[in-house]
Amino acid sequence: MSGRRGDYGSLLLGGRFESRRRRRIRTTILLAVGSYGANLVALGLALLLVTVGIPEPSIFEPSLRTVNEVLLPTALGVGFVMGHVRGVYVVWSRLRWVTRSELPPTEAEARRTLSLPGWLTFMQLSIWLLGAALFGILYGAHELRLVPKIVGVITLSGFVVCGVVFQLAELSMRPITAIVLRSYVPPKRQHGLLVRSVGSWLLGSGLPLIGMILIMVFAVTIGDVTIVQLAVSVLVLSAMSVATGLTLTLLNLSRITGPLRSVIDGMREVEQGRFDAEVSVYDPSTLGALQAGFNAMAAGLRERELVRDLYNRQVGEQVARATIESRPELGGVERTVAVVFIDLVGSTTLAATRRASEVVTILNRFCGVVVEEVNQRGGLVNKFEGDAVLAIFGAPTELPDPAGAALEAARVMTARVAVEVEEIRAGCGVSFGVVVAGYVGAADRFEYTVIGDPVNEAARLSSAAKEDPTVPWVSQTVVDAASPAEAQHWHRGPVRVLRGRVARTQIYLARS
Questions:
Q1: Backbone angles phi, psi at 7, to 5 degrees
Q2: Model pTM?
Q3: Structural domains in the chain?
């Protein structure tokens, strides 16, 4: 299932059918670019805070020229290059298993892969804290009052970077995480919604608020801060709070809405009858459990639909629907129905002169014609009895003209069998009357059927019709019960005492 947002919540992440090699390359690039961009933006915010947001004590003293123009750029350049080279190397190495083969990762590989966002975050935090200590020493060596300012701003920026990098890493890792979660279940679902939301608020808004508090402390302790400088500082930190808070909120929202949206899209497909819907499970948290739960539900629905389809084929759609809508019980009720019985002529000879597979093919073609014509007129193919077929019109679903429907089906199917299944001939008999329709068998195994004299009469008529299998033989009762439009297609035929019966039966034959 792939929509306009892709299988993983964003088109930037590719699709589920993308090769493993491309997933590894794409994920590494996204992690590198995302981490580099977050650090670059955070560095700009840190410089803005140091120079404008908290102007005093100033870093532009003449004694700090060497630090500002030489040591600071050198340290930043080395830190950026080494940090990102190290990060890309570790990511590429830990994802080596992705392209090694199509096999799932080992447990150790799965754990290392799922821990990549945490590892990248820890590495970023270490670099920023190291930078805070280093620049605190460099600036503090010339102006001790700069230490709280430098250390505080760099630490604040570092924590914000960590929040952004962690969320970007989890987003970028979705295609790889999906592979891991196919075969590996984390010991516990971590990073729940509450932890994510509180963490995003703390890093995006809580830390800038702490920064404002520190500015107030500096203003009180230093004493020579003007109202304008204080206002500028508060405005800069407020703008930073808005920007970082919005960024982290949107990232956190994407991490939540992505899995939820995939499940909603999957549910929409299921509602439309596409039970093969499946979502990619790419979230190691409780949202991933929701995605996996949907897939399990969809699999259950597919299995149930398969069972229903097989049941429909086994007993007929009408019986299946009646069984589902009401609890079936042993026993039956009287119903007035039309019964069609069609039996092959010379089936023993057919089986003796042709291969078994060929006989099955012929029987399937024969049954296909019968089923199509019966279903088209609202009837029920109740039984396949070797080389014979029993069909009912009027049970379990009532029909306005069951006799007419049965007669029309008999006429058309006889004509079609003669043309489309020319290897065989079949005698077709139709009767009409009251039967008992219901479930017969034992409490743990029963079937829907009809019992009564019309069934026996239809069977005897089909046997008699083998004398001339080009036309159906039907009883007068069914012609009398049919609508005039259908009755006109039949004419009076011979009068016979059917095998096993005492009274004579007036037979009608279809007009040529």
A1: -75, -20
A2: 0.61
A3: 18-291 (no CATH), 328-510 (3.30.70.1230)
